[in-house]
Amino acid sequence: MVDRLANSEANTRRISIVENCFGAAGQPLTIPGRVLIGEGVLTKLCRKKPKARQFFLFNDILVYGNIVIQKKKYNKQHIIPLENVTIDSIQDEGDLRNGWLIKTPTKSFAVYAATATEKSEWMNHINKCVSDLLSKSGKTPSNDHAAVWVPDSEATVCMRCQKAKFTPVNRRHHCRKCGFVVCGPCSEKRFLLPSQSSKPVRICDFCYDLLSTGEMTACQSARSDSYNQSPKSSLNDVSDDDDDEDSSD
Q1: 246: Cα separation from own chain's centroid
Q2: What dihedral angle (degrees, nearest 10) is formed by the CA atoms of 106, 44, 248, 159?
Q3: In angstroms, rounded to a whole number, what is the distance separating the alpha carbons of residues 97 and 135?
Q4: Which InterPro entries does the record match to this protein (predicted)?
Q5: Among candidates 81, 68, 80, which has minimal Cα distance to 22?
Q6: Are 79 and 17 in contact (CB under 8 A)?
Q7: Per-residue pLDDT of the chain (249 residues; tens, 9 = 90+)
Q8: How far is the C-alpha of 226 from the C-alpha of 90, rounded, in Å?
Q9: What residues does 224 pair with on adjacent strands?
Q10: Concatenated DSSP letters of 122-137
Q11: Distance between CA 54 and CA 44 in Å, rounded?
């Protein structure tokens, strides 16, 4: 079906509409062979709170952005190549239901659908697109994924030293390797993680020691379980400002 739609006028028109919704700030999305598979609003678990984001699934990329005017205008466009994507289901907990992790080498995060059926459809379509792409390219699935950041609300004290309490003065920071919420003294070091940045990024002392000695696998943190224990945030408490995890901390 994808091949049949690739050069259809209807598909070209749909992609053009998406481009127009992002305006001049968005990247062009129309290329030969690209097909818009589906779209919808998902709740993205950001650093400070869950936020509504508009997602577009193509046969080769996943695009999302902030909602300015539903179905008319979006900004802060993000484009994720599907060849690098791995998804994992998340167990329901409180108001955080019907979720899964979207993991890539540069960025990983959790999203939630409105219903279990919607979640199943999204996951099935994403997996099918990824499988088709890898089959055509002959590549193997990526095993290198960026850590999913632990939301600020999950940590009242540093997750490494277990002593420093967070206050308006003593700010929270995130380790780019494990995703933990840590204090400044526990994350003063920088380390080059080429998949995430061309410059050294903030990491906690624990990960720095492991990376420096070559024990990189021990530094990996499986964050899926942390979302099964997330605080019961209200999914209605959403805004259209920038993604918090894109900040420098």
Answers
A1: 10
A2: -90
A3: 32
A4: PH-like_dom_sf, PH_domain, PH_domain-containing_F, PH_Phafin, PLEKHF2_FYVE, Znf_FYVE, Znf_FYVE-rel, Znf_FYVE_PHD
A5: 68
A6: no
A7: 566 677 789 999 999 999 999 999 999 999 999 999 999 999 999 988 899 999 999 999 999 999 999 889 999 999 999 999 999 999 998 888 999 999 999 999 999 999 999 999 999 999 999 999 999 998 888 788 999 999 999 999 999 999 999 999 999 999 999 999 999 999 999 999 998 999 999 999 999 999 998 875 544 443 434 444 433 333 333 322 334 444 445
A8: 9
A9: none
A10: HHHHHHHHHHHHHHHH
A11: 10
Domains detected in the chain: 1-137 (2.30.29.30), 152-213 (3.30.40.10)
Q: List C-alpha distances in Å: 126 to 56, 62, 75, 220, 227.
A: 11, 9, 23, 24, 21
Rounded to whole angstroms, what are the CA distances from 149 to 74, 93, 146?
24, 18, 9
DSSP 244: G
Question: How far apart (Å, rounded) are the C-alpha atoms in residues 33 and 16?
Answer: 14
Q: DSSP letters along 19-57, please?
A: HHHHGGGSPP---TT--EEEEEEEEEE-SSSEEEEEEEE
This prediction's pTM: 0.83
Tokens, residue 246: 């894109």
Q: Please, are residues 120 and 38 in contact by the beta-carbon 8 Å criterion? A: no
From CA 117, how far away is CA 96, in angstroms rounded?
A: 15
- Tokens representing 158 are 């540093």
Give the containing element (helix H, strand E) for 210.
Answer: helix 205-212
